[in-house]
Write the structure tokens for this entry.
Amino acid sequence: MASAPHHLSHQVPTVLSLPAEINQIVLSYLDCPMLTTCALTCRRWTPSAQYLLFRFARVSSPASAQKFALALSESAHLRALVIELTVCGRLADSVKPWMCSRIDLTALLPSPKLVPRMRSLRIEYWDRVYSTTKLWALLRRYKNVTALHLRCCHFQTSHHIEDFIFAFPHLATLTIDSVRWNGDRERVFVRRPEYEGRTLSLQTLRICNPYEYAPLFQWLTAHRCVGVSRLELVRFDVMNITSAAAYVKELGAALQSLTFGIYLPSCYDVSVRRLNLAHNTSLRALSLQVYDVTDVRWMSSVLASAVEHPLARVALALTLDHRKTLWEAAWDAIASALSMYWRTTLSEVVFTHHAVPGFLQDVKPLIVERLPELAARGVLSVIVDTQDE
């Protein structure tokens, strides 16, 4: 048989010969400085690197904001790419976790004309968000923003949070993660008279790692934010559970997906039902996050409260520390609920194990052994997460 031509038999694929789609996937694992280097290093990488840099843009200083605005002003193509902007106050090379509080947010936000397609705005690690007429006027000009994410921010007062939220008339998604405001321990959410009677029509609401958030839930109810179909309450403090439970009840049939995780101190009775889903009759997806495997009894009570609902997906996330954990009495009720309830609607049960050093690693055989009926029905899937946060 004739051998292949010399120039074909010794051809070795290189990264430059990969399709653009594969290059983009590879580059998506890089941070912003590395993406910038790639964009300047190889012409074939430039489109993918630019897409990733500007599609989900990030600014963290006045200097980076100026460079970002300059690039947008010079290219209509780049202006059309931006759909999400993150304004981060964390300084990587400083012992202070947050940027100087005296830097005005308006110095980092681009003109709305430069980001005509921006749909999502993230404000992260910002200490003492100061209220200025210039800032609120600028925010109101982002007419197309439908998602606002506030993370690790400290506001002067609660009505400044209200200003942020109502600055976007088409807001559908809201995240409040580790947000503080002066007076948050007074259990009062100060409201502006001009917002009285306004309705907040959110579809997705995420509240993470709350402090004294009871006033926030009262504020949401006051503005008739009761059409939320996807709700996430994670890293939740037990002190807020009463007000949160009342809000979940208020959502009623509008709620279709719930993610819930709670910290329970040892002094609390973990068998008491913390969340009653009886009124959420349209609930189809339920995800429960466990931060301490010794307090799983609350999970069975939550599952039992949704027994009449058309659940199609149930997800459990935790870290197993020992094989015997799954065979403790508290897991009997959980296993029974998952096996007996929702037989006609349940199509997926996802068990996520966050593997950490010193704990169990490959738990799939254990979970299949503990939940054999779900495995036999083909609805059980096990995910072992080994990534560090």
In short: The two ends are 55 Å apart (CA to CA). The longest strand covers residues 120-129.
